[in-house]
Design goal:
Largest sheet of chain A: none
CATH superfamily of chain B: SGNH hydrolase
Order of helices and strands of chain A: HHHHHHHHHHHHHHHHHHHHHH
Largest sheet of chain B: 5 strands, parallel
Distance between the termini of chain B: 70 Å
Radius of gyration of chain A: 24 Å
Order of helices and strands of chain B: HHHHEHHEHEEEHHHHHHEHHEH
Structural class of chain A: mainly alpha
Largest interface: A-B, 45 and 46 residues
Number of domains of chain B: 1
Number of strands of chain A: 0
Oligomer: heterodimer
Strand content of chain A: under 5%
Distance between the termini of chain A: 38 Å
Number of helices of chain B: 16
Strand content of chain B: 5-15%
């Protein structure tokens, strides 16, 4: 048995080693010396690399040295920097994003100048279809074609094309994020919530602004464009807040998320429970699930914090994306605290247009289900993500029904509102949300095996790393949540003397560096 | 100055609802000072650790430094026998057992110390010998393990360059490794990382001092801390099953077979070995080369031609060579070349009787004269 396991693990390690990296190199970078050089300087669009910090420093210095009265020049500078940021990874896809953004700009101008409702409707559909078309081509083509291939095969028909390997399909970073931004802009202009932007650089900046380009937060034109037009003055407070957010994000990413990745994905010599659940014991799988919940939260919220902090240092305020989601007392609240920019987008552009909660109970439940399934599909082109969205939709419906039932039972409601009741609700919500994370990956079979082993009493390997650091991290995160929830953090950051704050920043950065694992892990949401 | 007089006064805050709000002007003033203080603190701490780690190599290279701490109390107590080698030595050279055997048989003590370091070879051993001499721990007898695979010279330089990185070296040691075929860019980049960005580059060395269990075993540097007072890396188990040995042998074969089957012992690694022998000669250190025990299967991976080449090279070095390859039976290995506890005892017993006691007798006579 031990021998078989060792050989199987060896094979998995070998497969992982041979599989191409998700971070692809630029296609024409090899042909154009400039882009090749750029790619060498900034090979990954990650914020916590030395290359990015240097890039940011150069852009920030040039930005703040440009006189205030030349605001458009500053905007152009950020547009050019953002284009280079993306082109360093893949120049042809950077061009694609720029071209679709230009098309969106022109569509909106045309729509805004037209008074004919039918033409306006046709234009908004053209804009939405173009954006969704690009998204589908890159992100969903493989999934739909492979499903069609399998379906035809089941009926004994020949699809006359071979199946696509998902690894061979190059998905542009952040395509789901900027597609949603472009769609929301077209719809808002169509509904006359906002006027079409007249300045091309400002609009390009709205889509291409590098802090939010590859993994959000999803910004709204109404919020962003106003800020882009405002002349900004150098301000130390802005720098301090931006730096603070950036450090917080870097700490979450390096010291927590990447560390937790060792528990879920394992090390070079031992693939973790999320990659090979069939080899791990029941206890190890539950611990790995807890680590994954922490990892995905710190990974994405850490990235968001870094993005918001970076933007803040240029004078742009991006919307908050997370608000301690694991302290939610129900799933509905969870979605008001988790990936806020996506959940509000889905609410405004899918749930409400479908009828929202204005219709009957069944209609509302149907709308919730459709919205969450689409939300799941947004994350990835795979049945597992659809199931993940479906599960969340069902949990939202269950919570809705339960809340309606509780309203008729004052005793139950009173109990649920005591601190014991609230703690129980938080715990149950956390468990439900965590169990859904099992499906948050492309491999359906692994998810089923993992669930099966979690609810049996299986023996197997222990976690790749001693679980002491996992428990310490959980306790640390809980304590930080308590500090923030009770308002102490705000008070500390406002009232602490400069020397203490400065030392705190240095210690935070150094701790993040010391706790970083052996190799940097990619951001989970970059692939969405 | 006010900043430092009561730095923690802010902790005694009032209730949030009654506390006086902090004005924006005051926050702006604090912001500037906080950002500058943050950068200054970070630079200071980085510079501090960079310089300290350059002065005290124990921070950069705990493999060496932690063993040195254990070796120091032994200095001056008895003739010092140090065995420099790889992880095979680390698990095989049982210093306490050797000291007891020699004392029992001769009535005179020796201080035996195990300087076995995983994934080391002649270049690492040369660096470590120079460090030992500088640190006042010159051995009276040096037993030097020769791991044949480490003598291979690939197109990209000696094999050791895959494990001995720039961050483990001090600035003065860089010319030595460059002279022995290490890649200059790689070595200097990593040394610079350890000096100017030490908190990140040396994170495993630092973290290993506080919480070893937080680091995957591949990244751990605390090997030398877990050894006994004579530097022996005590094997965790006394016996291994045939199945476990078979798995171990598969891993060992994947790692060594290709290198050993067509081994050409030459190039930088052999040059480093010659340099090391020259240093010993200059310093008057008695030195013996030793090839550690291997299982029958492991020994079969050397082709006859390779064995001939190795013998010719050993003869050419002009130094006593101890071939201990067949000293230990197969069941006392974990994977065909790392010894279990009984294997270590058997090897150490024979080493003490066949090599160290005769040397100790000669040494005692020479001292008496």
């Amino acid at each position: 048995m031990l021998f078989t396991n060792t050989v199987a693990i060896g094979q998995t390690v070998e497969e992982l080693r041979r599989s191409p990296d998700r971070i692809e190199t630029a296609r024409w970078a090899s042909e154009w010396p400039y882009f090749r050089w750029l790619h060498e300087q900034l090979p990954e669009p990650f914020f916590h690399t030395q290359g990015f910090l240097l890039f940011f420093l150069v852009v920030a210095i040039a930005y703040w040295l440009t006189p205030r009265r030349f605001n458009t020049s500053r905007v152009w500078l950020l547009v050019i920097a953002s284009f280079h940021f993306y082109a360093a990874w893949n120049a042809s896809l950077a061009l694609l994003v720029t071209v679709t953004t230009l098309a969106d700009f022109l569509f909106a101008r045309w729509m805004d100048s037209s008074q004919r409702p039918r033409l306006r409707k046709a234009i908004v559909w053209a804009s939405v279809c173009m954006n969704l078309g690009v998204l589908c081509y890159f992100k969903y083509r493989g999934f739909f074609l492979n499903e069609l291939h399998e379906s035809l095969g089941r009926f004994g028909l020949d699809a006359s094309y071979s199946k696509l390997n998902p690894i061979d399909i190059l998905v542009p970073f952040g395509i789901s994020f900027y597609t949603f931004e472009a769609i929301s802009y077209a719809v808002d202009v169509y509904k006359r919530k906002i006027r079409a932007e007249r300045s091309l650089p400002h609009f390009l900046l709205f889509i291409l602004f590098f802090p939010h380009l590859v993994a959000g937060p999803i910004v709204r034109a109404g919020d962003f464009l106003k800020q882009a037009h405002r002349r900004k003055r150098w301000n130390w407070l802005r720098v301090q807040i931006g730096l603070q957010l950036f450090l917080l994000g870097a700490f979450k990413k390096l010291a927590i998320a990447d560390r937790m990745a060792v528990f879920t994905d394992g090390t070079a010599g031992q693939p973790g429970p999320f990659l090979n659940p069939e080899f791990y014991s029941t206890g190890a799988l539950w611990l790995a699930l807890m680590a994954y919940a922490l990892r995905i939260y710190c990974d994405f919220s850490g990235y968001s914090d870094m993005a918001i902090g970076t933007a803040h240092m240029f004078g742009y305020k991006l919307a908050r994306n997370f608000n301690m989601p694991y302290l939610s007392a129900n799933v509905s609240e969870f979605w008001r605290r988790w990936h806020i920019s996506l959940s509000t987008w889905l609410r405004d552009y899918v749930f409400i247009p479908l009828g929202g909660s204005r219709g009957s109970g069944w209609a509302t439940n149907r709308n919730l289900l459709i919205t969450m399934v689409l939300g799941g599909l947004w994350h990835g082109a795979n049945w597992t993500y659809i199931v993940w969205g479906l599960l969340h939709g069902m949990m939202l419906i269950t919570h809705r029904q339960f809340r309606a039932w509780c309203e008729t039972k004052p005793v139950v409601e009173a109990y649920l509102n005591t601190w014991v009741g609230t703690a129980t609700r938080v715990f149950v919500t956390y468990i439900c949300v965590s169990l859904c994370w099992v499906f948050f990956r492309p491999e359906w079979g692994k998810a089923i095996v993992m669930l099966e082993r979690m609810f049996g009493l299986y023996e197997g390997m222990t976690l790749p790393l001693h679980n002491r650091s996992l428990w310490y991290t959980v306790v640390f995160v809980l304590m930080c949540h308590m500090l923030v929830a009770r308002g102490y953090w705000q008070k500390i950051s406002e009232r602490a003397p400069a020397s203490v704050l400065g030392a705190g920043y240095a210690v935070c950065l150094i701790t993040a560096m010391v706790l970083a694992p052996d190799s940097g892990k990619s951001f989970i949401y970059f692939t969405f | 100055m006010r900043l430092f007089s009561r730095p923690f006064a802010f902790v005694r805050w009032q209730n949030a609802s009654t506390a006086k709000p902090v004005s924006v002007a005051s926050r702006r003033r604090t912001a500037k000072r906080a950002v500058i203080a943050g950068f200054a603190c970070f630079l200071l701490l980085s510079l501090g650790l960079g310089v300290t780690s350059e002065v005290y190599p124990r921070i950069r290279d705990p493999f060496y430094g932690d063993k040195l701490v254990k070796l120091k109390p032994k200095l001056g107590t008895a003739p010092l026998v140090v065995m420099l080698g790889t992880s095979r030595t680390g698990f095989g050279f049982h210093g306490i057992h050797i000291e007891d055997t020699v004392l029992r048989e001769t009535g005179r003590p020796i201080a035996a110390f195990n300087y076995g370091i995983p994934a080391s070879g002649p270049i690492t051993h040369l660096i470590y010998l120079k460090r030992l001499i500088e640190d006042g721990a010159t051995p009276d007898l040096l037993i030097l393990e020769v791991l044949p695979s480490m003598l291979a010279n690939t197109n990209t330089g000696p094999l050791e360059r895959h494990w001995v990185f720039g961050e483990r070296l001090t600035h003065r040691e860089i010319p030595l490794v460059l002279h022995h075929g290490f890649d200059e860019t790689e070595v200097t980049t990593r040394w610079r990382g350890a000096t100017f960005n030490p908190w990140y580059t040396l994170r495993f060395q630092l973290l290993g001092r506080v919480v070893q269990s937080w680091i995957p075993w591949q990244c751990r540097f605390d090997w030398s801390r877990g050894t006994d007072r004579c530097g022996w890396g005590t094997p965790l188990r006394d016996v291994s099953t045939p199945e476990e040995r078979a798995i171990g042998a598969i891993h060992a074969k994947n790692e060594y077979f290709a290198v050993l089957h067509n081994l050409q012992p030459n190039g930088h690694a052999v040059a480093a070995l010659r340099d090391l022998l020259r240093v010993c000669n200059e310093r008057g250190i008695a030195v013996k080369l030793l090839q550690m025990p291997e299982s029958v299967e492991f020994r079969s991976w050397y082709s006859p031609e390779v064995n001939r080449r190795l013998m010719a090279m050993y003869a050419d070095l002009g130094c006593e060579m101890i071939l201990a390859s067949d000293w230990v039976p197969d069941e006392l290995f974990t994977d065909g070349h790392h010894l279990l506890r009984p294997g270590a005892e058997r090897f150490s017993e024979r080493l003490a009787r066949d090599v160290l006691i005769p040397w100790h007798n000669r040494y005692a006579k020479r001292v008496a004269r």
